[in-house]
Design goal:
The protein is of the alpha/beta class. Helices cover 49% and strands 12% of the residues. The structure holds tryptophan.
């Protein structure tokens, strides 16, 4: 199995994805004790993560952390795209420092758009809607890839630690793939890691909330971040914790600096073996690794290193299209666009696939199937905030008490309210954005 970020595959078997790619389960202990956990976290829509523990820790201990998300301006914004922004808005309320990349280089390289075209699409379809949804642009860093010199520099420089074989293994590139496309994952790595440059807030935990199709980019960014580190903290073969210098210059100075730091962390019984470029910590435990790794990262810039912490990620399920297959901008009847009129949305909702039985009789007798229903999914992902209310819908559908017609009507009403409100807010957004751009 391979994940191709540029294909239109849908991924159904999320447990299998976790197993095959080593994605961790987004288990309850990661969100239960967060302030007012977001519905997408509570309801298992966010199903997996890499390294979220570090973000959890930053939130709980009120330490600085950042979020980087990106949008590909290559079509209209629909409910599927809204999920990431819902998540970002939630994390912003918890104090995250927000960065938003407009992936115009990627759209140019992989979708055949001109940069000019992507600019209009990005503003009209995405940015206006982000503001309407509640994003305060004065409190976040929004940029276009093609205009961000530091991101592009990083893309180029970080490429030093990836080779062609890795790129082929990760993305399936071929001899005929154009070079701009081949380079675009490095630009995304630049997006993800630049927030840890001193100029943009420095070394700190970073979260990238995405759909699982983006996992190859996440793996690449995490590998690259690690590859550029000067120190490595790890468990040795004989179950001890060791700090190792990974480079061959300034080894003594790096060991001196690490030794001092370790003393400050009360590891006074450490054993330094300079020829091995190693310091062993007989009494450290695995729990110490993250803390030490982070502390060591922060001294790397004084040795011309980046000290990037591996970025964390979360993965959300894809919302199913109203037609029962993928929600896609290229199939308007499958998607509700944020710029749809309530009438258009209503029509799509009325035609949507539900979990209803063949006849009303039958449904009253044996009940409906909310788990296979696109309307229920709209409620679950977007339209019903209250968990009890959602449960009631689920139960009464299963028991054959709630019929599809009623549910559709309710969904259409809720959607109408949402879309009208958004329309109104987009009008004001245009004003804000003028100043900003
Ligand atoms: N590749 C993403 C997409 O196809 C867009 C993107 C660019 C992005 N840079 C990013 C997403 C950084 C997350 C983080 O939609």
């Amino acid at each position: 199995m391979k994940i191709d970020p540029w294909s239109s595959t849908t991924y159904q078997d999320y447990a299998r994805l976790r197993d095959e790619f080593g994605i961790q389960e987004f288990s309850e202990d990661l969100w239960r004790d967060l302030p007012h956990p977001h519905r997408l976290l509570r309801r298992g829509v966010v199903f997996g993560h890499r390294g979220f523990d570090r973000i959890h820790d930053a939130i709980q201990n009120k330490k600085p952390w950042a979020i980087l998300t990106g949008l590909m301006p290559s079509g209209r914004m629909h409910l599927g795209h809204k999920m990431v922004i819902d998540e970002v808005l939630y994390y912003q309320s918890l104090g995250a420092d927000i960065f938003i990349a407009v992936a115009d280089i990627e759209a140019y390289a992989t979708r055949g758009f001109t940069l000019e075209q992507t600019k209009d699409l990005a503003i009209q379809e995405y940015i206006l809607n982000y503001i309407a949804l509640g994003m305060d642009l004065t409190k976040c860093h929004l940029y276009f890839q093609s205009k961000h010199q530091d991101v592009k520099d990083l893309a180029f420089l970080l490429g030093k630690k990836v080779n062609w074989s890795q790129m082929v293994a990760t993305y399936g590139f071929e001899g005929s793939t154009n070079m701009a496309h081949i380079f675009s994952p490095l630009v995304q790595t630049g997006d993800i890691l630049h927030v840890q440059l001193k100029k943009f807030g420095g070394i700190r935990p970073t979260l990238v909330p995405v759909g699982v199709d983006q996992d190859p980019h996440i793996r690449l960014s995490r590998d690259i971040a690690q590859a550029h580190r000067l120190y490595n903290v790890t468990v040795t073969k004989d179950d001890k914790i060791g700090v190792f210098v990974k480079v061959d210059t300034q080894v003594k100075e790096l060991l001196d600096a690490a030794e001092k730091l370790l003393y400050d962390h009360r590891f006074t019984d450490l054993k330094r073996i300079t020829e091995y470029k190693a310091i062993y910590l007989p009494h450290a435990t695995e729990e110490d690794i993250t803390v030490l790794d982070e502390a060591l990262a922060r001294i790397e810039p004084s040795f011309q290193g980046y000290g990037f912490l591996q970025p964390a990620s979360t993965y959300h399920r894809f919302i199913t299209g109203l037609t029962g297959d993928k929600m896609s901008s290229s199939k308007p009847e499958s998607a509700i666009f944020l710029t749809d009129s309530p009438q258009e949305a209503k029509k799509k909702i009325m035609n949507a696939k539900t979990g209803g039985a063949v006849s009303l009789e039958e449904q009253k007798k044996s009940g409906g199937k909310p788990d296979e229903c696109m309307i229920y999914e709209l409620f679950l992902y977007h339209l019903i905030e209250d968990d009890n209310e959602l449960h009631t819908v689920y139960d009464s559908c299963k028991k054959g008490q709630l019929m599809c017609g009623n549910c559709k009507k309710r969904a259409a009403d809720l959607m109408e309210r949402f879309l009208l409100d958004l329309q109104e807010k987009r009008k004001n957004a245009l004003e804000q954005i003028k100043d900003y751009l």
